[in-house]
Amino acid sequence: MIVKKLHDSGIRSEHAYAAAFASIGLSVITWATSMKVEKNQGVERADRWGIYIGEWAPTFFGLGLALANYEALPRD
Q1: Residue 75: phi, psi to the nearest 5?
Q2: How far from the centroid of its chain's Cα atoms is residue 44's Cα?
Q3: Kind and range of the H or E element at 17?
Q4: Contact 16, 63 (CB under 8 A)
Q5: d(CA 51, CA 63)
Q6: What angle is formed at CA 12 by the lines to CA 62 and CA 27, rounded to 5 degrees?
Q7: Measured on CA atoms in the order 10, 16, 21, 25, is the torsion positive or negative?
Q8: Based on CB atoms within 10 Å of each CB, which residue in 34, 52, 55, 59 is the most buried?
Q9: Residue 11 φ then ψ, to 5°
Q10: Sign of CA dihedral 46, 51, 54, 56
Q11: Rounded distance, CA 30 to CA 51, Å?
């Protein structure tokens, strides 16, 4: 159901894969920015930010796979 609604709204597997790779890059950028801006918070705070955003990537990769499987189905 959800995959069909995403596909019908124009989201394709390539979009989900791109979002996954972007979240990996954003995770690194967020970690580095937190290290620089929040120096008094320590490495733990930067790690939490990086991990939080880094956890989005598997979700986007999973959606990409689901959408790719849906796109491969034969249409009437």
Answers
A1: -100, 150
A2: 22
A3: helix 13-37
A4: yes
A5: 19
A6: 50
A7: positive
A8: 34
A9: -85, 125
A10: negative
A11: 10
- Local confidence pLDDT in tens for the 76 residues of the chain: 999 999 999 999 999 999 999 999 999 999 999 888 887 887 888 888 889 988 999 999 999 999 999 999 998 6
Name the amino acid, one letter, at 38. E
Q: Could you give the CA distance from residue 56 to residue 23 in angstroms, rounded to a whole number?
A: 6
CA distances from 59 to 1, 25, 32, 41 (A): 17, 15, 23, 29
Cα-to-chain-centroid distance, residue 11: 14
One-letter amino acid at 8 equals D
Q: Residue 9 carries which side chain, given as an amino acid letter?
A: S
